[in-house]
Design a protein that fits this description.
Layout: H1 19-33, E1 39-45, H2 49-57, E2 61-68, E3 71-79
Antiparallel strand pairs: 1-3, 2-3
């Protein structure tokens, strides 16, 4: 893939507390202001609705479905 990628893992005990939103916004701001990225992508399993919703909250939009190592993902992208 041609774009930098945002990925995250949030342990069960820390989920649904807003950490993903807070840290995601800070990382994307850093990517724009300090690293001068124009866009960032994310791959997420279609069934992972919590991660899809978080990415949509952060401003990512669906681009296309992709298959990696036999697994189906959605590729989302955010213009910075």
């Amino acid at each position: 893939y041609e774009l930098p990628e945002l990925g995250f893992v949030i342990e069960k005990a820390s989920q649904r507390k807003g950490y993903g939103k807070e840290v995601g916004k800070a990382i994307l701001n850093y990517a724009k202001e300090e690293l001068f990225f124009d866009s960032v992508q994310a791959l997420v399993e279609k069934e992972n609705l919590a991660s899809v919703r978080l990415l949509e909250y952060l401003g990512f939009t669906y681009e296309r479905d992709v298959t990696e190592r036999g697994r189906e993902y959605q590729l989302l992208e955010k213009k910075l």
